[in-house]
Amino acid sequence: MNSSYIKKSNIKTGKELSFTDIPYIVCRFSCIVLIVYYCWYVEAFGNFSLVVNGSFLLMSGCIFLIHLVDSEIRFNEIPYGIWNKAVVIVYCLIPGLLIASNRLTLLDAVKHFIIFFVITYAFVLVSNHYDSINWLFISIIVSVMICCIHLMFFGYHYSANRIVLSSNSNPNILVTILDLGLFCILYRVKINFKSLLSAVPLIVILTYNIIMTGSRKGFLAALMIYVFWGLAMLIQIHKNGNQQQIAFIWVLLVFVAILFIFIFFRYVVNTELMSRMKTMGNEKSNSARIEMYKEAFKIFLNKPLLGAGLDQYQFWSALGGYSHSTYAEAIADFGFVGCILYFAPFFYTMYLLVRLISNGYEFFRSLFLLGLCFVELFLGIGQIWFYEAGHIFTWALIFICTQKLCVSQNENYKHSAGKVCKYVKL
Predict the structure, then answer these.
(1) What b-and-e string marks burial along 260-276, b requiring 16 or more CB atoms within 10 Å of the CB?
(2) Across the strands, what pairs with 157?
(3) Distance (Å, whole) CA 235 – CA 365
(4) Apex CA 317: angle with CA 311 and CA 318, to 5°?
(5) Whole-angstrom distance, CA of residue 175 vs CA of residue 211
(6) Residues 283-292: b if buried by 16+ CB within 10 A, e if exposed
(7) Tens-place pLDDT, residues 242-287
(8) What's the rounded Cα separation, in Å, for the pair 329 and 384?
(9) First to last CA, the chain
């Protein structure tokens, strides 16, 4: 990696700590605290504003110090998707104050947008400084496993046989976090027996908890993650042409398929999740959602350019509440202009990943990240991304990982070109 892109940490290189390192250490600590908070604590025990506000203020102070004392920080090091959050905040705030029906609700929603922007911005700064995103993956995995242990031993019966963390916990929000943990584990798995074996217990625990929440969308999203991971792994191995690895993976996949079939018919088929899967075509439930979507479209037709303002759907819809869809909520709240601003980085990132895949660079990681994009787009049909940490963290990982892959590819091209020029000169 070029030093203009990532600054090596003195901790990593073994040098004595400097004043520049201190805000990074505190900033990373604040990030970890908020990851644990959003991935477990808030679902288990409810909101605790002191943790959020305290960590947010500490993080903001550290970010200010980092930009003040670290001359190697470059604005182009920040992924476009992260910067775009700041643009969306400005867009929501300025027109929103003029058009919103309830300005207090708007300001509260903008406040959450600002907090998540600062958190994801800190993710980038810290990851660039330490030349690694492993700390971010590990923090999410540990937080999600704490969540799973709590769920298994102290879970709350949400309805029927569905298990969540507490009476305030929503199974759909919870399972989004579990799916993120599943992605993080699989993304870090290497193509060897030891790595796969060490990941199996975590994967089994996570899958069990996803099933126990009874969330249909979450379960389908988990299946999509498995499919994309298996597909990316198989294609990568076949591209490498290593016959032993190819044989090993095929044997492993056959074993996993047999194990899955056994577990499914022995333990899963009679769960509440499968009972709910059979009712996915429930006319009453679907008709209610269709009415919500129609309400959102009516708002869009009434205010097509700028929308009704962030978090204002509930005041314009005759049904009240939320539309239960990112796309419906977006057209109602953001309007045409806001939708372009909000969704542009997602599709631009998918375009970058397609380019990486077509170039054959880091094929497995690029294809798996693209798969996660499709998972999020699928979940957006029945969930709202705006305020849920699981979705915010997911997109932050997609943006950061894609940026690192693109920069790494560019550095490799420059290095290869340099070698060619040197050879020709000689």
Answers:
(1) eeeeeeeeeeebbbeeb
(2) 163
(3) 11
(4) 145
(5) 9
(6) eeeeeeeeeb
(7) 677 777 777 777 877 787 787 777 667 677 677 766 666 565 667 7
(8) 7
(9) 26
CA distance linking residue 282 with residue 147, whole number of Å: 31
Q: How far is CA 56 from CA 33, 164, 287, 396, in A?
A: 10, 27, 41, 17
List the structure tokens of 132: 């690694």
Only one residue has tokens 């908890």, namely: 209
**Cβ contact 240:212 at 8 Å:** no
Q: List b or e across 53-92, with b for residues whose CB sees 16 or more CB atoms inside 10 angstroms.
A: eebbebbbebbebbeeebeebeeebbbbbbbbbeebbebb
- Integer Cα distance of 296 and 285 in angstroms: 17
CA 248, CA 376: separation in Å to the nearest integer? 31
Here the tokens at position 128 are: 């660039």
Q: What is the pLDDT of residues 72-99, one digit of tens each?
A: 777 777 898 999 999 999 999 998 888 8
Global pTM value: 0.88
d(CA 281, CA 260): 25
**Whether the Cβ atoms of residue 364 and residue 232 lie closer than 8 Å to each other:** yes
C-alpha distances out from residue 123 to 27, 30, 128, 385, Å: 9, 10, 9, 19
Alpha helices in 241-282 (DSSP H): 243-263, 272-277
Residues in the chain: 426
**How far, in Å, CA of 24 to CA of 27, rounded?**
5
